[in-house]
Amino acid sequence: MSPTVNRQFKLAQRPVGMVKRSDFEFVEAPVRDPEEGEILVKILYLSLDPAMRGWMNEGKSYIPPVGLGEVMRAGAAGIVVASKHPSFAVGDHVVGALGVQEYAISNGKGLVKVDPKVAPLPVYLGTLGMPGMTAYFGILDVGKLKDGETVVVSGAAGAVGQVVGQIAKIKGCHVVGIAGGADKCRYITDELGFDAAIDYKAEDVKEGLKRHCPKGIDVYFDNVGGDILDAALSRLAMHARIVICGAISQYNNTEPVKGPSNYLSLLVNRASMTGMVVFD
Description:
Shape: globular
Structural class: alpha/beta
Low-confidence stretches: none
CATH class of the largest domain: Alpha Beta
CATH topology of the largest domain: Rossmann fold
Number of domains: 2
Strand content: 25-35%
Strand order of the largest sheet: 10-9-8-11-12-13
CATH architecture of the largest domain: 3-Layer(aba) Sandwich
CATH superfamily of the largest domain: NAD(P)-binding Rossmann-like Domain
Number of helices: 7
């Protein structure tokens, strides 16, 4: 029996500061049949990523903002339940930006077929999806990681940060993670194999970096921005590389985003700071 009702969350207004329930509208809409060249996907898993906060804002960015009244953009994994597309069959599993809804009509652009026998579907939204690809290309291609270097990653317990740290460990690096709370810090050291963790909620980050990175930081992978970025800038090694992946500490600001105050450390240490977007 074909589905008849689609439940969706749409962006009702631009959030100011922290996101509120009133920023979204929950709607029920009829499910239409796919036309030629289209498929109907039943969404099974959603990926709620920090990047979604930026997609709600107006202004220039690496991707157009979600329009008011549009289904909230989100990565998702699902199964094809109807198809009039030559490249997709009923029963195929796919991942892509299908949105916060139960069903999605797609022309197939941007969708990737995946095999749940190889890995569980949620893994294709994490380690084998956008977060994992961000970590892999960010630390290796943008960060130009070399064996045995000292690596620091903020947001270390998050989907991107934890993969960055594990890749760096495979490369024989000394890896320090910055995370918030004792549980997250235990997780990245005891389960993920980081060499050390700094709890930014309980200790001074600059002092922690001084203790765990006595020769300085060769690669800093930044997911946080703000004061933690400034702390990392104060501890750079010569020819260090900083990868700017995100700035989650700034996403809910009502004032302009805070820039680094220690940026002259880039000059002194002949270091570089490079932004990266996995969609490139």
